[in-house]
Structures are given as structure tokens and as C-alpha cells.
Hints:
The chain is elongated, with a radius of gyration of 22 Å. It has helices at about 1-5, 10-30, 35-50, 60-80, 100-115, 120-130, 135-140, 145-175. The termini are far apart. It has 2 domains: about 1-90, Rna Polymerase Sigma Factor, Chain: A; about 95-175, Arc Repressor Mutant, subunit A, CATH 1.10.10.10. The protein is built from 8 helices and no strands. The chain is an all-alpha fold and about 190 residues long. Helix 3 packs across helix 4.
Amino acid sequence: xLQVRDGAGEMLGVLFDRYQTPLFNFYSKLxxxxxxxxxxxxxxxxxxxxxxxSYRPGTPFRAWVYQIARNxxxxxxxxxxxxxxxxxxxxxxxxxxxxxQEHQEAELLHRALxxxxxxxxxxxxxxxxxxxxxxxxxxxxxxxxxxxxxxIHRALQELRKSFHQLTEATLKQANAAAPENLPPRGGRHEx
Length: 191
């Protein structure tokens, strides 16, 4: 980033290669809109170039770029208020797993995450998926470190509760769909 700041624009490509996918994943899980996510990633890199002089040596680049990412998203929704409700089916698919049970649990966790309010979803995405440190998140959100810890704790509690509710609902659906009292293989019912 220091090279980009000092005018080596070709180095922006290195940053793009490194941060494009994490930023896209952040936006897509937060907004549920693939096209918007792609547009916002492009906006982030335009802003990096535009505001490169504001980057200070010693500042963690990852925290700085996510501040730009948050601002780009906020600015977008100021200009274009949400015209439709959040549509979870627009999110990228859950990463495939080895077993059917793991796949189902990953899908339920994904759905539970989508049920969280946007602020709680955002803090969990920053912490768990983007792997920002609590100190970086505190600076990014403009709050105290203990506030970040509390918000993450509450978001995890709400996620856990939502996950358990979805798990129970899925089990009830599976039990309701299971065939009851099938006759034995011989075809006769014993009375």
C-alpha cells in the first residue's frame, strides 16, 4: 500500500488480487446481492486509489480497507435506499462439505446468519470470516474494545439461538415427512 500511496499504481493490482475475494465474500454475505457486491468491490479499489494519501504507515492495511468498504456500502445505500427486501437465496452457495450432515449443518448456519440484523451479521463477518482482530473492529466501528467484545458475544448468542430454532424446525419437517406405519416387507399387516 505504501508503494500505491507513493504513486506506483501497478501495485494496486497486487492488492486487488489479494483482497478482491475477501471483500466480495464480505459484501455478498452482508447484502445478499451478487451484482451489488461486485460493484462495491470495484468502488473500494477506486477509493483506495483516490484516497491513497490518507493511508498512514503503521496502520494495518486490512483494517483501513474494511473502513473504506464499510463507507462505500453506507454511501451506496444513502444514494440508493434498498428497493427490495433482503433475499437470502441470492447469496453464494454454502461451501460443500464431506458429509450430508455437515452440509445440512453448514446450510442451517448460513440461514441462521441471514436471520441476524445487519449490524450483528456485519460484526460476525468481520470477526469470524474476515478475521479482523477485535482492536481493528473497534477502530473500524468507532467504539471501545469492550463494546466490540459485547456485540460479538450477543451476536453469537443470537446466532446460536437462531441455529437451534432452524435445527428443530428442520427435524420436525423431516419427521412429518417420514412415512408412518409402513407395512412389513411381506405386504401383510399383523393385527
